[in-house]
Amino acid sequence: MKNRQERKLLTRQSLMSAALQWVEEGQHFSSLSIREVAKRAGVVPTAFYRHFKDMDDLALNLVDELSLVLRQLMREVRQERASPTRIIEASVQQYCQYVASQRVFFLFMSQSMTGGTTVVRQAVRSELQYFAKELVVDLRRLDLLPNMEPAMVDHLADLTISTVAFATVQLLDLVDSGPQARQAFEYKLTRQLQLIYIGAANWRRA
């Protein structure tokens, strides 16, 4: 028999899973009500408030959960000292695999980047900024662009994250298109990022 804490965690996860199920069915998270998510999770609406203040709070927890795992995944890829070309190839491959395995999470994040409430949009954008800051740290640690000014490294990281975020929207539509379409996407994104870094390595201030 589950104790009280285990039941509480199970209910919390059921509410989050119910919200993602709504998104997976093609609905926008912003149209989901507390009553509906509670119904799908098999609890009464009042039980929702034992776990989340409101729907924004639930959304913020979903953002945190996805971002923590993704940051760890990308950190592991960039731990290896390798050429920029190899790091980009490995990062794109790992990222695309993760998007495929967690598609509904990324559908939710994609929705939240442009739709929904201001607080959720800001949370997603803050996470993207955090990813960019971590990338800057790794670029400096690996000494991949030793001659580039710090401000330009910041711009490069922002451009990298923006490129990947935009490409993710396309990738979400390719998950069910077969391995060839995904391989073509990975190749294209890898080359785009490599071109960005080739340009950065040869940057000269006018």
What does this structure look like?
The mean pLDDT is 89. The protein is an all-alpha fold and 206 residues long. The protein has two domains: 1-52, Arc Repressor Mutant, subunit A, CATH 1.10.10.60; 55-202, Tetracycline Repressor, domain 2. Helix 1 crosses helix 6 (103-114), helix 5 runs antiparallel to helix 9 (179-201) and helix 6 (103-114) crosses helix 8. The chain has helices at 4-24, 34-41, 45-48, 55-77, 84-101, 103-114, 118-141, 150-172, 179-201. The protein is built from nine helices and no strands.
Summarize the structure.
This protein is mainly alpha-helical and 206 residues long.
What is the count of DSSP helices, taking H or I runs of 4+ residues? 9
- Please state the structural category: mainly alpha
Q: Low-confidence parts, pLDDT < 50 over ≥5 residues?
A: none
Radius of gyration: 19 Å
Q: How many E-type strands?
A: 0
